[in-house]
Amino acid sequence: MEFFLDTASIEEIKHYKKLGLVDGVTTNPQLLSKEGTDCLEQIKKIVSIVSGPVSVEVTCTEPHRMVEQAMGLASIAENIVIKVPASTEGIVVAERLKREGIKTNITLVFHPSQAVPFIKMGVEYISLFVGRVEDFGLDNTPHIRTLRSMIDTMQSPTRLLGASIRNPDYLVTAIADGAHAVTVPPACWQKVYTNPMLSQAEREFLESWRRLPPLVRKKYDSLTADMEVAQNAS
After folding, report:
1. Residue 83 bears catalytic tag
2. Which of the two ends of the chain, N or C, has the fewest CB atoms closer than 10 A to its terminal CB?
3. Measured distance CA(45)–CA(43) in Å, rounded
4. pLDDT tens per residue across all 234 residues of the chain
5. CB distance 52 to 79 below 8 Å
6. CA-CA distance, 174 to 171, in Å (whole number)?
7. DSSP secondary-structure letter at 77?
8. Closest of 112, 138, 145 to residue 127, by C-alpha
9. Annotated catalytic residue: which of 17, 83, 98, 103?
10. How many other β-carbons are positioned within 10 Å of the β-carbon of residue 203?
11. What is the DSSP letter of 85?
């Protein structure tokens, strides 16, 4: 199971990398532009600190220009993965890039049917968008299991990537229903670890402890490994 961070922020990447949550990074032009610097230079900074896959997206729309741009982006580093839209143009581009040995991440997949030709050709990743469809009152989570089943049935090396993960429930569902990877924005991880129930329970436990007499708490609070070793030796 791979956990990618959906960001172009070096600060956020470094923070979540320390927590073991950055097996790779996914970006897009919008995320890159938010960093207020040259997009290509920002990509170079990201690949300098991330050894896993780093997905970057083509912005051209004509297949031949998409291929040219993709080849230029792929030349930045060996771990670059090119994001290509799940369109008829994308099929042409993905086939060409596969022949060139360039890894692809097929993005903007909203329905499993879009993924069929890409699974067939064995692209590296297919990004199923989970959260974005909720803007239209739809639930895309059942398609996680369906798309994973399709990949297995077609005996493809393609990996299913759960994308547009907007909340902890989507994260858990993507993992439980068989996604090979998930890409999670920092905002979602913040929701996970700023859970009000967690904060309240932690506060209540500490308040209960601090109400105990200082003499009761002193030995426990001041304990270190060295102290415990010395005490056992005696």
Report:
1. yes
2. C
3. 5
4. 999 999 999 999 999 999 999 999 999 999 999 999 999 999 999 999 999 999 999 999 999 999 999 999 999 999 999 999 999 999 999 999 999 999 999 999 999 999 999 999 999 999 999 998 888 888 999 999 999 999 999 999 999 999 999 999 999 999 999 999 999 999 999 999 998 888 899 999 999 999 999 988 888 888 886 655 455 555
5. yes
6. 5
7. -
8. 112
9. 83
10. 10
11. E
Residues of the chain with CATH 3.20.20.70: 2-193
* 2-193: CATH number: 3.20.20.70
Chain-centre distance for alpha carbon 3: 5
* CA–CA gap between residue 172 and residue 182 (Å, rounded): 10
Residue that the structure tokens 């099929």 belong to: 91
Supply 190's token pair.
Answer: 């913040």
Q: Which two tokens stand for residue 15?
A: 């923070």
Residue 9 CA from chain centroid, whole number: 13
The whole model's pTM is what? 0.89
Chain Cα centroid distance, residue 30: 16
Which tokens belong to 228?
């415990």
